[in-house]
Amino acid sequence: MNTYKICLLPGDGIGPEIIAEGVKVLNAVGAKYDTAFEYADALIGGAAIDVTGEPLPQATLEAARASDAVLLAAVGGPKWDTTDPNAPRPEQGLLGIRKELGLYTNLRPVQIFNALADASTLRPEIVDGVDMMIVRELTGGLYFGRRERFYDEPAAGVDGAPGQRAYDTLEYSEYEIERIARQAFEIARKRRGKVTSVDKANVLETSRLWREIVHRVHDEAYADVQLEDLLVDNTAMQLINRPADFDVVVTENMFGDILSDEAAQITGSLGMLASASLGDGVALYEPSHGSAPDIAGRGIANPLAQILSVEMMLRYSFDMADAADDIRRAVTEVLDEGWRTGDIKDAETPADHVVGTERMGDLVVAHL
Amino acid sequence: MNTYKICLLPGDGIGPEIIAEGVKVLNAVGAKYDTAFEYADALIGGAAIDVTGEPLPQATLEAARASDAVLLAAVGGPKWDTTDPNAPRPEQGLLGIRKELGLYTNLRPVQIFNALADASTLRPEIVDGVDMMIVRELTGGLYFGRRERFYDEPAAGVDGAPGQRAYDTLEYSEYEIERIARQAFEIARKRRGKVTSVDKANVLETSRLWREIVHRVHDEAYADVQLEDLLVDNTAMQLINRPADFDVVVTENMFGDILSDEAAQITGSLGMLASASLGDGVALYEPSHGSAPDIAGRGIANPLAQILSVEMMLRYSFDMADAADDIRRAVTEVLDEGWRTGDIKDAETPADHVVGTERMGDLVVAHL
Ligand SMILES: CC(C)[C@H](C(=O)O)[C@@H](O)C(=O)O
Ligand SMILES: CC(C)[C@H](C(=O)O)[C@@H](O)C(=O)O
């Protein structure tokens, strides 16, 4: 019997509620596939700040490193919102663990469940067949470059009055671009064989380097994959215009942050989308949505994105494709039977089919 | 009789064809409102590179500075595409003139013409009532910060092999943020009184400065305007989810580039959207779409965004609101009568109502 150690990071808001359902599903899968999952809980984000003063305590990093995979729920909330550059912020926990574990590849699959096709604000014929994988570089760019604030700089204020100034740095090395490009091409080979590389090469030097390296990697080792370049502003348009045309979309960290959320919204059901962050060691899995502080603690949050992040964990970290397929099938069946949490219900959902977090987790388990 | 000097910058691709229709409309308006428009043509973009080797020749800048307003069509095309950081690129002409004329405010109205409501890929009930003004900071941020490329840096390549490295700098001063914030609040007062300020304050230092200054300006002088902060990734979602909720959206240069194109695509008819770039002196007006090199020279391009950029010129530079209203009414009537260029036609458009660039310009003039 295989045994895997999983580090659980519930984080903030609805995090603890939804991660419990992820664990429920893991346990059910373990029983069916004769695999043992051992769990170690650790603190991250606002929850960690409240207890330790830091968003990513050393103990959490150690627990993550000692595990075979990390399951995260969500971090952040108004309680910790601040623009004071010296105050700890929940997001630093997330950014810190990505950097410390070297999770340079963020995979965000964007797919539509048939039962939820009507949730999109786009016309049905436009979202029909949407199935793309956003490959976002996750440990470089503006997120991790040098940044600083200068107070009371002469001439930074209005009319030369004293004022402040700040900068962030967007930096990329050939190495960082090359490895994410390889990931995108490898993934495209297992899909429809097409990569759209997104940049702003008509303005940014990092984008011109990006474009050159992506093409070199392509020409040297992946000439069988179709490669197209698209400017980031044009991509923001085409995602709405012809979303079904995209297969694999690869881009740098900040563009990826914006475009992956845009693409997620195209489905109309953000509560259904999971993500995987991969590096050369332990990987991390999390829902694409946030911590939803407004509905935290009420037992009504949608756990399906968390459950689908477990699906990705089984697929990418444990090579358990059958078990992963089981989860996807179970989720699909539950939706086809009409079960909905509040965020994905619509005018046609009968009141007795609107369920809470735990019940939704139970329904998925029952279908495994 | 008033006389205004207008600097015409046709640029590349369809530029010369559509700007001719803008001039046609200006002349008709001039005759009706007893105003003389004098024109000076100048080179910009690829057209300027071909003749002078530079995307923004000194003579062009002088012509722009000597004018009362600048009418630009579009720049760029595959002919001048390159990732060589030392080669001249058409876009440098556009960025150069924005910087040289101090055009720090970019206004991009996003509205739906009733006759074209079906062009959107979004559901009709979602785009119904969309009417927002994107206020994009245009002379700061990543577009104009220090950037550099390093060749053959040790350890920048794979496995420590030699490779390259590049960076761009996102920089903002209090002064730059303050003046664009003021513009946004002033505009909101003349509209529905709501400003959405977009940043990435959970990651970027420039965004934290942005948020602080926007709130200071608001609290000091515009407390009557409703102000909300929205993270850029969330904004990319909400623009698709509830576009009609936005009134004025203010943001920094790169976020504005991406979000204004996304918002434009929500209308489904990019060929209808104009923009104004304002500073403390001469202003510049241009369509939101690009140079469409694939259809250049065929007389089929849609001139309406160019014509609507003339509308903005009359409104913002010449205080000719009646004439501006006339143009908008004329365009609306032409569309209501069913006339379409190829880009905005649909399955229901009768073949004899699909018209070319010149004919569309003539139709607008006939309705003035
Ligand atoms: C919380 C935030 C720092 C994070 C990011 O910007 O990467 C989030 O938006 C995401 O996409 O995972
Ligand atoms: C052509 C390009 C440099 C320009 C920009 O990025 O500002 C364009 O996309 C625009 O939005 O006007």
TrEMBL record, chains A, B:
Q: How is the cofactor bound?
A: Binds 1 Mg(2+) or Mn(2+) ion per subunit.
Pfam families membership? Iso_dh
| Source organism superkingdom | Bacteria
Q: Which InterPro entries match?
A: IsoCit/isopropylmalate_DH_CS, IsoPropMal-DH-like_dom, Isopropylmalate_DH
What's its job?
Catalyzes the oxidation of 3-carboxy-2-hydroxy-4-methylpentanoate (3-isopropylmalate) to 3-carboxy-4-methyl-2-oxopentanoate. The product decarboxylates to 4-methyl-2 oxopentanoate.
Family note: Belongs to the isocitrate and isopropylmalate dehydrogenases family. LeuB type 1 subfamily.
| Listed name of the protein | 3-isopropylmalate dehydrogenase
Q: Which gene encodes it?
A: leuB
